[in-house]
Amino acid sequence: MNLSVGYLLPENKVSEITKKISGYFKNDIWDADDTAFKDFRKSEWGKTHRKMDFSVFPSKLKNEVKFFILTRIQKDDLQLYSAVHNYARSFKQLSKFLKKFYPHINSFADLDINKALMQLRSHLSELGLSIRIYGRRKLSNYENLLNRLFLFYKDFYDTRDEFEKDIWDVRNIPGAKFPDHDSRHILNFEDVPIPFRPLAKRYLKFRISHLSLGQCTLDVRILKLFLTFIHDKNPSWKDLNDLTRKDIEDYLIFHNKKFHDKIPSKRSYLIVLNVFLETIEKLQFDEAPALPVNLLLFREDFPRPIKKSENDIKYIPEGVLQQIEEKLEFLKPSKYIPIIVLLRATGWRISDILNLRYDNCLEQTSQGWYLCGDIKKTQVMNHRAPITKEVAGIVEAVIKVTKDQSNTINNPKNYLFVQLEGVRRGRPYNYYDIHRSLRRFTEEQNIVDDSGNPFFIKNHAFRHTKGVELLNNGMNILHVQKWMAHASPEMTLHYAKILDTTMRKSWEEATKQGIFRIDIENKRPVKVELTDIENEDIIEWEYIRHNLDAVKMELGYCMKPIKQPCPTQANPCLSCRNFCTTPEFIPKFETEIKEVRNVIERGKVLGRQVWIDKNQTTLDRLEPILEILKTGTTHHLAGKKGREYIGEEHTHEK
Fold first, then answer.
1. Contact call for residues 464 and 455 (beta carbons, < 8 A)
2. How far apart are CA 335 and CA 405, in angstroms?
3. Percentage of the chain modeled with pLDDT above 70
4. How many CA atoms lie within 13 Å of 548's alpha carbon, on the beta-carbon side?
5. Cα–Cα separations (whole angstroms), residue 314 to 311, 339, 558
6. In angstroms, how far apart are the furthest CA atoms of the chain?
7. Which residues pair with 427 in a beta bridge?
């Protein structure tokens, strides 16, 4: 879109430029030594390249370049040194390019920037000028200046409401959720087919008010994919009213081909699409499908989630952690070292560490030191995590330095880890920069795993590592959940790897008072030595018997946990009025009584009162019945009357 519609720029914007370019700044040559720049000169530099010459630009563009430079310097988005040494040295060649290729434009906003950058690159190459910096895939100073001028004036002259634009800057949307540490703040709808673009914008306008920028960015990406497919299939459509199951099936074929074996992406894309269709249906959008969404997308269309094994957990092995701790002082820039220390000590997300505020992030109690902050993802405010005195000392040092250098302009939100000048002034460090710094660190310091292969560290790996460490050290799962500010214990278990050695150690600790089995010949409990056990099934069986009630039943044992109530009662037949037994069962009763007595004795040895009480109840029922049987009498509480029909019942049964 040409923002200077009809080549007529908005008068109020032109007036704003003219008003600012007054006094000293009307001159076509600016000298960095002039008193006009005294408040913006942060450091001194050599005698060369101290002037900016704007006279080389066409008259229509000259004031735009001046306004761009001056505005950014005054906002501290651009340092005076960079303006002189990077931008000003590009003026001459950039002006020659514009006079040759775009002699009639009124504004940098009139450019087709992609085409212009390609032309500039070719032009510079023909002149033999470098178009890359230090061999990196980065725009040269010439290209960078042209691109920034275009983006600046594309936004400056566009006076429409943000929601009317095809590219939204979420910083201009009240209530939009975006982290200060992230450099991304754009939602781009330009690739969404034009007929469906209003629908996509209206949907995202609803979503941006209560969801994160990351989720909304994913929404736009998936909507672009789906709506482009539908547009290519049905070019005349301006809405989704006629969407059918057949259209969805065709899309699923396309979708499966595109993602192949990328099951997580395939699943997440379909989930987002389903939410989109359900939402526009609930909100009764005019563009919503006529058919109910449950007749378009079925549960069977979604791939099953892949369950991660413990080997998929991205934690940092002990050997790698040791290397990091030994060489952390070599991390560059050094301002990131305290961040890595806190990632390691707390297991918090990098976003939560960067969100810490120097005025309330550290607390000392009678129990010790705590790091305090808000956990944005799960909305746990004023969360605390215990830290050592040494880590607290590092935080105190950072607090002192940051507090001394901060004011209401360069750090209005009191961030602990803050950029005090430049484009990101008043915002936390960029977490991508920290990730890149860690990558350079692992390469330069030769950080390797146990196999000798390079180990590349990601910011989030410290969180996984802390979860593993806490669980392996025996912390209760609910305490780990609280520490990590997880919404549920399942989240904690999802990436906390329990090592086999830890399981063995925990089992040995649980059974340190001894495990026993009944000696069949001697009919008494015998202690089992751990070193004598080779069969893991035996370990499991003895462990279960050690931790459960183990009440002897007719054909086995009651394995109900101690705290779980019994749905019936121990040996219910013995108290049933319909239970009948005769003297021929005397040997069975004698054997049963012996086994129950053995279990009671074992319970006394182990101090398990539950075993004693429940088996004593059974014994108290068995012994009276045995005494009756020894007299040659049948035991049957109901008696003959209860087992025979009498009167009319007898006649009816016949």
1. no
2. 14
3. 80
4. 17
5. 8, 19, 42
6. 128
7. 419
**Kind plus residue range of the DSSP H or E element containing 282:** helix 263-282
The CA–CA distances, whole Å, from 546 to 536, 549, 558 equal 15, 8, 13
Total-model pTM: 0.60
Separation CA 248–CA 245 (nearest Å): 5
d(CA 315, CA 344): 11
* Residues 374 and 381 sit within 8 Å (Cβ to Cβ): yes
Cα angle 299, 305, 306 (rounded to 5 degrees) comes to 155
Map residue 387 onto helix, strand or coil.
strand
Q: Do 383 and 374 meet the contact criterion of CB atoms below 8 Å apart?
A: yes
Q: State how far the Cα of 123 lies from the Cα of 365, in Å rounded to an integer.
A: 66
Strand partners, 508: none
Give the torsion sign (CA, 173, 175, 178, 180).
positive
> ω before 333 within 30° of 0 (cis)?
yes
Distance CA 540, CA 390 (A): 43
What strand order describes the sheet that includes 362-364? 362-364, 369-375, 380-387
Closest CA to 316 of 305, 325, 327: 325
101, amino acid identity:
F
In the chain, DSSP finds a helix count (H) and a strand count (E) of: 24, 15
Handedness of CA 464, 470, 473, 475 (dihedral sign): negative
Q: Is-contact 189 167, C-beta < 8 A?
A: yes
Q: How confident is the model at residue 377 (pLDDT cuts 50, 70, 90)?
A: confident
Listed residue (242, 186, 196) closest to 216, CA to CA: 186
Note whether 372 and 366 are within 8 A (CB): no
CA proximity to 313, closest of 465, 454, 448: 465
- Residues of 371-410 as b/e, b for ≥16 C-beta within 10 angstroms? bebebbeeebeebbbebeeebbebbeebbeebeeebeeee
Contacts of 248 (CB under 8 A, 6+ apart): 296, 297, 301
Judged against a pLDDT cut of 80, whether residue 291 lies above it is answered with yes
Cα-Cα end-to-end distance for the chain = 99
Helix (H), strand (E) at residue 371: strand 369-375
Half-sphere exposure of 561 (CA within 13 A, CB side): 2
Continuous H helices in 295-430: 318-327, 337-346, 350-354, 389-405
Look-up: residue for tokens 């004023």? 382
pLDDT tens by residue, 318-371: 888 888 888 888 989 999 999 999 998 888 988 899 999 999 999 998 888 999
Do 444 and 454 meet the contact criterion of CB atoms below 8 Å apart?
no
Which DSSP helix (H) or strand (E) runs through 63? Answer: helix 59-74
Contacts of 624 by beta carbon, 8 Å cutoff, 6+ apart: none
Q: Give the integer Cα–Cα distance in Å for 173 and 154.
A: 18
Residue 389 carries which side chain, given as an amino acid letter? K
Nearest one of 345, 340, 329, 323 to 391, comparing CA atoms: 345
Question: What are phi and psi for residue 559, nearest 5 degrees?
Answer: -100, 20
Interior angle at CA 101, CA 98 and CA 107, nearest 5: 50
